[in-house]
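One-letter codes give the sequence; the integers encode the fold. A sample entry reads:
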Amino acid sequence: MKIKLGFNNAFKWYHKEHVYSIGYIIKDNTIIQGEDLLQFLEQIQDVEELEQVLKTIEGYFSFVMYIQNKWIIVSDIIRSFPVFYQNDGNETMITDKIENFENRIIDEDKVKEFLVLGYVIGQETLYTGIKQIENAQIVTLTETGRIDAYRYYNYQYQIKDEEDEKLIKKLDALYDKAIKNLILFLNGRRAVIPLSGGQDSRLIAYYLTKNGYKNIIAYTYGKKDNPEAIVSKKVAEFLNIDWYFVEYKNSSMRKKFYDKKMYSDMADYCARGFSVTHIQEWEAIIQLKEKGIVHEGDVVIPGFSGDFIAGSHLNVEMIQKKEYTYKDFKEYIFKKHYKIYPWRKRDKEHKLELKLWSDAKKSLDIQKKDNDTMNEEEFNSLFERFDFQERQVKFISNSVRTYDLLGLQWYMPFWDKELMTYWLSIPLEKRCKRKLYDKFVDETYGDLMRYAPIAVVKQPKNYTNKLCKKIQGIKKLYTYYFTHFLNYYGYIKFRDFLKYCFQYETGSYYFMFSYQYINYIRKREFKNEKS
């Protein structure tokens, strides 16, 4: 067994004999981390006891432990610290850095999946035989090379209805508790909030100030005077929080993106062989640090996935039918997630579609046939579980890598286990399109919402006429690149943007970042092979 752990700039791996840990846990309103966490883990005697402990704690962590003659890897419910493992027949390696594996062979099937989704689903990575630990997972590796993996927490509905008044009161208490846990972790340190013009980041700011926490700053980025910046500034003004704006200028962004050393450092750290280089805030954090506004020791508090747990990814159509087939489910997840370029136009023989669907079924452990049926609760539960364990874990939450790449710790309050589990008990019609959430917000801090209404970004009109659609398509490309309010395209040279648009028929910057990363690892592995 070979163990190489330590690829993190903000959180430290701790090690003592046969126990390794990173991050922290919250148990009985106490933060346990560092050497104290090692001591806590050393007392666990078997896997059954470990499972019981995991049910009683919150926190962001990964553990590697030797128990009962087995090496065990454990992740938190959002898999916030990726760990990889491989058995090549001679030895088993556990590491948090994909480049530590000597024999790296790119899996072309996974490359296709990556370019469709922006990440790799299940336990696979972009490399043959190299596995990633998934969220809420316990992986056991024996000396004989046997590997077993299972989840100790599942995203699962347990629906029960109550009056809205009671639900709102309970939600208020749970959001307050989640922020109290955050304050416990902050321990007086400065909270840095990426404040958008939406709902989720302002909820964090609101509950922090409600709890009397004063050491807070907020920032927003993008084009000057963009809708998000205008609204977020008003939110900060209302809550009396210092607010900073980072203007995204193309020359500065491209200098970083096309600098070989800067790009490779960022790509190796953030993408790690399974996810797109989710770097929207790369420019913002670098500038904030260079200007002395943000320092190591500060903690970044993003509002990731607050919309998801409250039901924003459900729609009316998904809760109206009483019966669905698994084929319906396939079409829904393909439409929602498998979409960063129009791959189906090229997949004339449906080979890629069959492969993608097979991998999705394996990830969700679907044993049913495509024409088998399920009710609306089963359908939506499956739909959200895929979203949770694939997109939210590997695509959304993994973007915290940008913060710790630059030496900043982070905290994601909306992944509080009790809060998320409570949302899963609320009827679908109340969660759909955040119906109950909007009512909760209005009753809890409606005065703030009225002072700074949600930012509205103007969307182009959709046409049905073919000629108008073509003209609109060209106009969209121009709008995407030159006027995107957050200017994510500022990283990409115009000639490369056009190449992606015309070669792959997409204006998605996620696709462009994904494609750039695949090119990067191809060149790197080719050089390694030659040497």
About this structure: The mean pLDDT is 93. The radius of gyration is 23 Å. The CA atoms of residues 70 and 143 lie 7 Å apart. Residues 164-186 form the longest helix (23 residues).
